[in-house]
Amino acid sequence: xxxxxGICPRGCELDEGQTGFCRAxxxxxxxxxxxxxxxxxxxxxxxxxxxxxxRFYPGSYILSVGSFGCNLRCSFCQNHRISMCGSDIxxxxxxxxxxxxxxxxxxxxxxxxxxxxxxEPLIGFEYILDCAKLAKQKGQKIVLVTNxxxxxxxxxxxxxxxxxxxxxxxxxxxxxxxxxxxxxxTVKRTIxxxxxxxxxxxxxxxxxxxxxxEEETERMASWIAGIDKKIPLHISRFFPQYxxxxxxxxxxxxxxxxxxxxxxHLEFVYEGNC
Length: 274
Known about the structure:
By secondary structure, this protein is of the alpha/beta class. The protein has 8 helices and 14 strands. The strands form 4 sheets. An 8-stranded mixed β-sheet has the order 6-7-9-10-11-12-13-14. A two-stranded antiparallel sheet has the order 1-2. The chain is globular and about 50 Å long. The model has no long low-confidence stretch (mean pLDDT 97).
């Protein structure tokens, strides 16, 4: 009998021993579990602005950790060396207790908590939840940098232990999302739900010829403003990566032009990677 994963709308139905689409969850003993639990591929003390979060404890640092796998398939992925890998990648194991202890030990260096980032963190839901519960007891902040492609139930369970999120809004177009294996409405729902309880900032990577029209940016910014016009939006410049090395970087002047368009609706718009 197949076991169904409940983390994202893909809802992988897996036979015993089978790994899901995200490459980080599999069926064991008749249920879907996290293969990436505690297994870290990346760890660094980053400026909070690098997440990017511009209006959440500016000037501070945050311990950033990543694992492996992703539940989308972006041909332009900036972190494909870990996000497109599975459990055969080299990792270091840190238990929730060890990670929180390490984070607390960096308080003297300006660290305010833990950011789950680099690959898609929410496919490692169980680890994040366990770490977040411990971190909150120690007064640590929890940040998620996510694609927002998650079911409402796990998101709702996690939000009480989260302080801030940067959510990728990769485009404001259903066709774009179908091509990368997701759907726009799920990400919109994640943004709406998260903005009610935590600090949210949004990032859009502008790719020439794909999501770079003034009209799409205007629609996106107007929709965000309908939630809260104070939600920061990062308009970020694309550089050739992964399977999209034949496309030129986004022109800097285009980033500034689209940011100007977004400012017609939003109070805080930032140009990124320029």
